[in-house]
Design a protein that fits this description.
flat; mainly alpha; 29% helix
Length: 103
């Protein structure tokens, strides 16, 4: 029996506070599609933080799981390097096979 793989959407806007969404309580916000997604199938975080106030280091941290300073992602000009783990390039099947083999 094969399991159905979930559809995952990572919504990571730039310079947008999380409390300016209708479902987060902002009466002036007009975000019906995001509100519907959060209410039915999505996840919305009300208490989250980022690792760096600059977008590139913050996103490098989000995508790699490392603090920005670990590999020098301190400014907008220090992008991900080919040898670094990236969430969107990870082969989860390979990782789960490695975990199973170690047991």
């Amino acid at each position: 029996m094969s399991r159905k793989r979930p559809h995952i959407i990572l919504f990571n806007p730039d310079q947008w506070r999380g409390d300016v969404l209708g479902h987060m309580g902002d009466p002036a916000a007009r975000t019906p599609n995001l509100d519907r997604l959060a209410a039915k199938e999505g996840v919305s975080f009300s208490s989250a933080f980022c690792q760096n106030p600059v977008c590139t280091p913050s996103r490098c941290s989000f995508m790699s799981g490392w603090y920005p300073h670990v590999r020098g992602h301190r400014t907008m000009y220090h992008m991900m390097k080919p040898d670094e783990p990236v969430l969107l390039k990870t082969d989860f099947r390979f990782q789960s096979e490695k975990r199973t083999a170690r047991r």
